[in-house]
Design goal:
Helices cover 4% and strands 36% of the residues. The strands form 2 sheets. Strands 3, 4, 6, 7 and 8 form a 5-stranded antiparallel β-sheet that branches. Strands 1-2-5 form a 3-stranded antiparallel β-sheet, with no helix packed on it.
Length: 113
């Protein structure tokens, strides 16, 4: 397998959560090979459950299946083409902390009739 398929150098960046239970993950393409697509892997650190998602040929993807509040996840990405799948990128860790529910404002226009 080509050197690129064995080792990938990705820059993984997490941005502000896009919606409850999700974040956006971004990476850079390897420069020395043809890539057909990417697979995103994440592992819940507490349960050791690993899930993967085929992101296709994009360089960013929303991650929406983080469902355990305050759980920590490890993420990595692989590239693939018709010859196979690369080794994993460098891992990055993310702790999912959902926004607290909003408390309603006080009642308005209080009066006695």
């Amino acid at each position: 397998m080509k050197k690129l398929l064995l080792i990938l150098f990705f820059v993984l960046i997490f941005t502000t959560p896009l919606f409850a239970g999700g974040s956006k993950i971004l990476w850079d393409a390897p420069s020395d090979s043809e890539v057909t697509g990417y697979k995103i892997y994440h592992k819940n650190i507490y349960t050791n459950q690993i899930e993967s998602h085929d992101a296709g040929d994009v360089l960013a993807e929303s991650i929406s299946n983080l469902n355990l509040a305050f759980a920590e996840y490890e993420f990595w990405v692989t590239a693939y083409n018709e010859h196979g799948e690369s080794g994993p990128s460098v891992s990055i860790f993310y702790k999912y902390t959902p926004d607290a529910p909003a408390v309603p404002g006080p009642p308005q226009n209080l009066r006695i009739e």
